[in-house]
Amino acid sequence: MGKEEKNGLKINKKKFIRNIIIVLIALALAAAAFAIAPNFEKDELDDGKIHLIINNKNLTSSDRLSNDIFIENGVIYLSKDDVSRFFDTDLYYDAKYNQYITTSDTKVATLAIGEYKMEVNGINTPIAGTIIIKDDVAYLPFSEMKDIYNVEIQYIEATNIVLIDSLNREQIKAEASKNLSVKLKTKILSRTIDKVKQGEQLVIVSKLQNGWTRVRTASGKIGYVKTDKLQNEKIVRQNMEKEKQLEKVSMVWDYYSTYKEAPNRTGTTIPGINVVSPSFFELKKLGKGEILDKVGESGKKYIEWAKANNYKVWAKFSNESMIETISEIINDYKLRQRTIESIVDLAVRYGLDGINLDMENIYKEDKDMFTRFVIELSPRLKDLGMCLSVDVTAPDGGDNWSLCYDRDALADNSDYLVFMAYDQHNASSTKAGSVAGYNWVKANVNKFLGQEGVAAEKLILAIPLYTRLWTENSSGEIVNTSTVNMGNVERQIKGKGEKVWDETTRQNYIEYKQGNNTCKMWIEDLQSVKEKILLTQEKNLAGISFWAKGMEDANLWDMVNEMMFENK
Q: Distance (Å, rounded) from C-alpha 544 to C-alpha 181?
């Protein structure tokens, strides 16, 4: 091989090595670019749309909005689907009056389509916008509704962002300790989406463990800065926690009829009780929401007695099982409103602490409208610091007695759901049995907490202070049944037989002959009541209630006091 050939091979070899190096460098640069590129992706807010950020979440970019928001004449509009999704899951269109009804914790508002006014808690207020229908979608003038939902709304024109912050949520701010670049990602090489000057306030969204903090700038941009570049952090708004009137409820209904006066309790106390529910109010039959006020002078004295003894007064409001009467009210917004306004007026007039809603015997078809009534009543009472408890029956039963309640929704929209755990066997039963056997009560409590979706802290167990004496003939047929108050049981059965403890019902049982007939009784006494109270403690329920004052054994209240309060 000649010298020139050797030199040519050397040159080609050098070129080959050089080319390989160039390719490797190019691949390395490409890999680096590929790794860095995601940090320089386009800012999701730079797409020309109006973006909606609620409590530091960009809902527009995540396609969570059902419809684009828009601004008209300075009013920010959200579609009814989006208002429902983010602010009021119970937003309701009332076809009869062509209006939307919306509720929050303490507000009920109605907006009629085409009208520039809004009714809030019974008071008409002029507004700058009205409901707009576009492509068959209703849009609500949301910026006019900020006080209903207790939110702060800001439109930042420079960045085309609408900011909505809930005023009942904590907000933390900090200052930039120097001029900062806000990054799209938690990388120094990431794209800068905003710049802030030293001393500028930033909303803290979240702190990460990798030394970065997610922040929101004054322009509405959300990105990342190094945590050590923030200073003077402070809480500018606290979480608003809902306060309960009571940690545990121990209530007794104090019943009296339309034709009698409120009981005179002066000079007495009821140990173990912190709530009394006198039967102050009931609906007038087919009275289109008119309420019969049974308080009178005796009721005023009753309230004075209760307050003097530190009892909360949750007045019972009943439909007296008048199915047509409650139906006519709950199916018409104006009648619901009239009834609610009357309840509020009465509650304020008498200085009540709450209302116990006792609506029994409701058409199954009216289930949702009864829930609607509670949805619209609850905020009005909460606005006054009052409590709403709703009485319901066991989950399984007849259409108009049991299947007429949406227990989950009722619990969500009231302070408490009261399970009237009695009449397992009622006066019309064809078979003798317990009024409230432990096995039946426990099974239904489990249904409330399970299939019905009711939270334990919302559920009050109502315990009967009565039982039934059953009389059967020789064929086992029921020939008579009578109600026996707990306080009268011993007198009723004295000398007629021996009581035997029934572990299934956790009640004392007695059976004795009366001529050719057989008498049977599953007894409610201190022992059976104790078992039910222990059940509420085992399940961590909100508390207990008793039907009704005057039926009890003389020693009951001391036992209740010991179990509910003294041993805590």
A: 58
Assess contact for 168 and 150: CB atoms under 8 A.
yes
CA angle 291, 293, 294 (to 5 degrees): 135
Q: For residue 154, give Cα distances in angstroms to 81, 270, 281.
A: 21, 54, 45
- 402 and 433 both lie in a single domain: yes
| Residue 515 to residues 54, 473, 518, Cα–Cα distance (Å) | 76, 10, 8
Longest Cα separation, the chain: 139
| Strand boundaries in 287-332, DSSP class E | 291-293, 312-318
Provide the residue range defining the domain that includes 187.
170-237
For residue 115, what are its two tokens?
């009208």
Between β-strands 151-156 and 180-183, what pairing exists: parallel, antiparallel or unpaired? unpaired
Tokens (6 digits) for 565: 């309060």
Q: Which of 398, 388, 400 is nearest to 358 (CA)?
A: 388
Residues 181, 131 within the same domain: no
Q: Dihedral angle at the C-alpha atoms of 145, 149, 150, 156, nearest 10 degrees?
A: -60
Residues 325 and 406 in one domain: yes
In whole angstroms, what is the distance from residue 390 CA to residue 374 CA?
Answer: 9
pLDDT tens string 183-237: 999 999 999 999 999 999 999 999 999 999 999 999 999 999 999 999 999 999 9
pLDDT digits (tens, 9 = 90+) for 295-304: 999 999 999 9
Does 242 reside within a domain? no
Please choose, from the candidates 460, 542, 413, the residue with its C-alpha nearest in 3D space to the C-alpha of residue 106.
413
Main-chain dihedrals φ then ψ at residue 352, nearest 5 degrees: -75, 160
Grouping H, G, I as helix, E, B as strand and the rest as coil, residue 43 is coil
DSSP 361: S
Confirm whether 276 is domain-assigned.
yes
Signed CA dihedral, 326, 118, 346, 549: sign only: positive
Residue after which a domain boundary falls, among 195, 212, 237:
237
Rounded CA separation 57/44 (Å): 12
Report the run of H or E that residue 152 belongs to, with start and end.
strand 151-156
Q: How many domains does the chain have?
A: 3
Among residues 124, 139, 163, the one where a domain terminates is 163
Amino acid letter, residue 368: D
Q: Do residues 459 and 419 make contact, with C-beta atoms less than 8 angstroms apart?
A: yes
Each residue's pLDDT tens digit, 512-567: 999 999 999 999 999 999 999 999 999 999 999 999 999 999 999 999 999 999 87
**126: domain CATH number?**
3.30.457.10
Q: Give alpha helix (H) positions in 309-459.
A: 323-330, 333-349, 367-382, 407-412, 438-449
